[in-house]
Amino acid sequence: MASPSPADRRLVEEVCAGQRRSIARAMAVAESTAPGKRALCALIHRRAGRAQIVGITGVPGAGKSSLVRALAQRIRAGGRRVGIVAIDPSSPFSGGAILGDRIRMTELAGDPGIFIRSMATRGALGGLSPSTHDVIDVLDAAGFEVVLVETVGVGQDEVEIVQAAHTVVVVSAPGLGDEVQAIKAGVLEIADIHVVSKSDRPEARKTAADLRTMLRLGSIGRIGSTWSIPVIATSAQRRDGIDDLVTAVGGHLAHLHATGEIAVRRRRIVEMRIVKAAEDLVREQLLVRRRDALEAVLARTLAGETDPHAAARELLGAAVGPAG
Ligand SMILES: Nc1nc2c(ncn2[C@@H]2O[C@H](COP(=O)(O)OP(=O)(O)O)[C@@H](O)[C@H]2O)c(=O)[nH]1
Ligand SMILES: [Mg+2]
Question: Most buried one in 43, 76, 224, 279, CB count within 10 A?
């Protein structure tokens, strides 16, 4: 790797000193495909590693953004600094999908102990952007003790992002149908903490009871962990249950450290980051740098001279070994 430029070093020092403008600038680079991105992210990464990353997921409308807002305020009240990354997979297509969150989040924006970043999950080439964790690294290096990552639990990409957290909170809203929505979204199994949001609504009690029953029957939950998954009812509107959630999030981190599970989590996060970065490299190679080679096998596949699997292997060459 090229040695980092003095400008990069200066930027990283400013980030670590918590300067907001520099944090925003570093994030912009981290999210970009700029040539200097890797060098900067490498520097930042070396300064990160202290924050607790808390993934918050659930179907659209579950109450995640409202909860994140209430949670952030409560953590701040306890004296810790909070970074927020709001991920919306639809934003590259609609352009404006995150506007609502952004507006509602602005009530937190005046607090220097809170930093909010909205971003898209998908990179320029259509794949999951590996920059999510580069952006989290920036917040981590900047000294935000807790980083809340809000993601819509709708696709595999989003599930992977939220799984790359130390603590995963799955939010289910009452009254969105009999079935617990998270089952449909496929995120129920990944929860370290279940939240039933909008507890000011009467149906919340049933949703919480359903979740507890499922947990008791062992039909959901993580295999091989001694953590007892709590079900917490919250109302962001009435600020109910938020303290309990803060306690559970802290308790989960303590559990990870006490049992050594933290090492497993850290390993999983790094593994996901490496695999995602590798996928992105391959995609970039194929779609951009090796476009000619792609076009060549594409033509031959269309002509019936080869098939898509063989063409893919040929394209990747030595990296995948002989065709099987
Ligand atoms: N009654 C009630 N409504 C809520 C509560 N929290 C959020 N909502 C509403 O639920 C809808 C979706 O909330 P939002 O936080 O944007 O959900 P997200 O899509 O999961 O981020 C909005 O209309 C909110 O006003 C709550 O605690 N009680
Ligand atoms: Mg939201």
Answer: 43
